[in-house]
């Protein structure tokens, strides 16, 4: 029976770092089920869900901390179960662009939580426009069949107006 492990690694970015980690996972006999990689400042971050036999998972749990130290990475390993897909009726992507201010992301995540949507992804970045620091954020959420897309659209538009968004968009797709 396959076991699952979440692997998180953070460290200074340099060429080949992703290859070194994926090679280690493969050499332990594990499979990369899902992964995300991003750069934050000069820091490389990687999150992977790996699967493998009991022995393969023990091998990665034993070998990764030693390799991480050699690679000057901070790592966290956590056993988990396989992700069970929930049958959501809709996927929504909420996008907004506005002048940056503390708490904006928090207000949108509160909106998502208040409307009992399941957050699946979040991307945000800052950029300068006419010498003003701007935030662009994109949230991917899942909606159940109980959600009424029209109500979500209206409530999101109201939130974006309150936040002073220069641009906002909500795409709702049926699954």
Automatic annotation (TrEMBL):
Pfam families assigned: ACT_6
Keyword Acyltransferase: no
Swiss-Prot/TrEMBL keywords: Cytoplasm, Repressor, Transcription
Keyword Chloroplast: no
Domain ACT: 93-175
Cellular location(s): Cytoplasm
Superkingdom as given in the UniProt entry: Bacteria
Record-linked InterPro entries: ACT-like_dom_sf (IPR045865), ACT_dom (IPR002912), GcvR (IPR016867), UPF0237/GcvR_regulator (IPR050990)
Xref: PANTHER family: GLYCINE CLEAVAGE SYSTEM TRANSCRIPTIONAL REPRESSOR (PTHR34875:SF5), UPF0237 PROTEIN MJ1558 (PTHR34875)
Stated name of the protein: Glycine cleavage system transcriptional repressor
Source organism of the structure: Agarivorans gilvus
